[in-house]
Amino acid sequence: MTSGSDIAALRQKLAGGDGPRFWRSLDAVADSPEFRDYLAAEFPSAARLAASPERRGFLKLMAASFALGGLTACGGGSRDYEVPYVNQPERIVPGTDLSYASSAVFDGFGNGILVTTRNGRPLKIEGNPEHPWSCGGTDVLAQASVLGLYDPFRSQAVQHLGRPSSWAAFRAALQAQMPAWHEAGGEGVALVTGPVTSPTVAAQIARMRAAYPAARWFAGAGVGREAIYEGARRAYGKPLETLPDFGRARTIVSLDGDFLDLGPGQVGLSGRWSAARRAAYAEGRLLTLHAAAPTPTLTSAKADFSTPLASARLEAVARDFLALAAGGAAPSGDDPVSRWTRRAAEALIEARGAGLVTTGLAASPDLHELVHRLNGALGNTGVTLRHTAPAVETGAGTLAELAEAMERGAVKVLIVLGANPVYDAPAALDFAARMERVPLKIHAGLYDDETGAHADWHLPIAHPLESWGDVRSLDGTVGLIQPTVAPLYNGRTLPDMLAFLTDGRGSEGGEDALGLLKARWRTDGEDATAFEARFADALRRGFWPDSAGATEDVALTQEAPPSPPAPAADGIEVVFRPDSTIWDGTHADLAWLQELPKPLTKIVWENVIALSPHLAEREGVATGDIVRVEAAGRAVEGAAWILPGQAAETVTLSLGYGRTVPDHLSNGLGYDAATLRPVATPWRLTGARLTKTGRRRMPATTQNLGTMEGEDIVRVQALGAAPVGNPKGAPPPASFYPAPETQLTGAAAQWGMAIDLDACTGCNACITACQAENNIPVVGREEVALGRWMGWLRVDRYYAGGLDAPTTHFQPVPCMHCEQAPCEVGCPVEATLHDSEGLNLQVYNRCVGTRTCQSYCPYKVRRFNYLDYTGGMTPVQQQQRNPEVTVRARGVMEKCTYCIQRIAAARVTSAKDAHAPIQDGAVETACQGACPTRAITFGNVADPTSRVSAARKDPREYALLGHLNTRPRTTYLAGLAPAADPTGREG
What is the DSSP letter of 924? Predict the structure, then answer.
């Protein structure tokens, strides 16, 4: 592995043009003998089959992977026989999918989804194309929510003092105490929730606070929006959401922005950015993105001009922009940051009133305020961005205030609903110890987590897929949540619990969750029949129409505050970021997300300590060294990862790991970043020290899996330059092999796919959607380290340029479905073959596991079941998988099928309609449907009017490794770059 002493040589190699133009890792640049040996043995030999994962960890992992296989606890006990319907349930046709419009919940915010069910069982999540915010897109968390429903690590019973109890016992215990609460007016009662956007939950909280006037409400989460609202309050006098309108912008400047990164706004914002960039290209221009960030993000990775910049310097750059907007002089330096600042400022000034400056969740309130003032000075406010009232309910106290109240004994009853403050709170608050001073502690959550372990009562709450409720999107649109299955573990919803805490009755003797939801939305005096019709229409849509937040009129309150003194350059800077797969740890028990490669590092099953090549070179640190980061008497240890594009003196710590819940999948994975997290500045720490411990442990990563040999793997189309795509209309190269059957029979449908590399942000929603759709197993950290990751679709990340500030490119790679497929020639038993519609098929019951096809495939997209990753499942468990997709056994090769089960379903529908041609768009692959930026197009390439045919006519279109004459049906559209950038995006 590349060490600090090698970095200078690698930097010189790239600067001198001796290295590869596009590269995936530092080891690929070094091209060491060890790396060449790895490529030669791309998929480890059978001799390594003796290696097996640790038994306890394997059983925990398989429990999570088998979760979709069913749960014997559902419905009150196991059943080994089937009972036919006596009365057929309404709208359920056996063997036919039924979809429900609902909402996926992310940190309190909602995105519109369609839940696909089969015989009453939720199987798959799709985007809701009618939803005004998410517009049919999804993210990795929405796709994994089905696994969360069936997660065996979910809380399954009421617990009292660590022992099983019941809802009846809990109700009786609290009903005995509630008269005293009422008599004291709620004095000493503290309610803790996560971020609340649900109008129904907010109404119940208000009702509870009216019943207990002296009670206090606190809200907290690992990733909060306090800095966003505080920055707006300083600039405009009130907290606000800021919503960009990319379609009206001509240039974007991101100061540690995150609109393309995982978060509550990712689906809506990335889709709008991609649509605006596509529209600009159609007009012959480029919607340029300039980005500066202390650590690489998906937003900075997609920038046309980017530079690493320490978090401490972001505010100074924002002030430079303000001065330039007022006619001041530009920075005169020749360093990369000065050059980037001048270029970005010129673009903003040239596009006055059509520019856009943005920042992100991790920015300080001061930076948010400066960005607001900068947009105002440039005339952007009200044009390329608008402000609305916060989607999150305000008025709650902070976890720091709660910790202080518990310390002085002011809290007598602590009620925690849907939050985990023991884990989320910075370690300096010592939340668990202070919580012990509270006489009565009640926790309700999906998991019996760290907070549940310190509570007197733990209660299971219902999953969103088994609940009634509502939730707001970032733009304020109110989405409805409806149950798609009965609660598996007798969980309650938050409105249910709040109603009970208010009146002592709740759904037993009062309104249930559906009644509470209707009561919130039925207006005074509204006719019952009219309301039911209106509610049914909203339920069908999945949201209340025209419920988005109104645009607020804003005016800057005063001049920008004076510049603070320059920070002392003592020690290194530590920045904290949510994990790009499990967020703040809320989803840490979902195996799909643990094994999902992180977009920029491709690491799985843990977090790492990311540092720059500069810092690694200076400290002599190699990737895989265990390093220690310490500050203020606290420290964390983790594996080092040298991350190109990181600010020189900055270290990045990821949230979500270091969990301590016994017997849970997440227990013991990685380090807990909250140990070092400051209370006052939760996203940044200064004055830290980095030291080597002398130990090593390589993180499990997929970054070198599927390495392809060849040129022009990634292509970039500079604006105005000659087309980089394949020449159109040119005859295909000659071949020794006869023409494919598809070209001889003239079959009606010829399936193909086009992937727009400019639109792909590397978000990985496609990978998780493919896993959910196609029953792809989870194999565990040890197996991934052996090269046995099973994903049918991977998203390769390539760098171009130097180590310190490279440009980044993403490339999804499914099976190419080649017309001249090498795998078909190599298979000795014809387990892989072509059909009449151009699909490269894999016949599982023919495969004998020679893996010849795998070695013949130049794209490295085939996966082999080295172990029986899905064995031991009962017939009832198997019904919880997608019944249209075969569950593969040990010794079988598998790969992307273009979701052939969906094509077959379209054929059936076509047959019912007198075999009418399958309409364009009738077949949507799982990856295509999940993509929030619509980077993937699928359809019939034989239909000249289809969208995929139109994509193939684009001058950017090219075939991956086309010189091999494999004639792939999956092709790519080159990424876009500014006119003066012949090698990709500039730094």
Answer: -
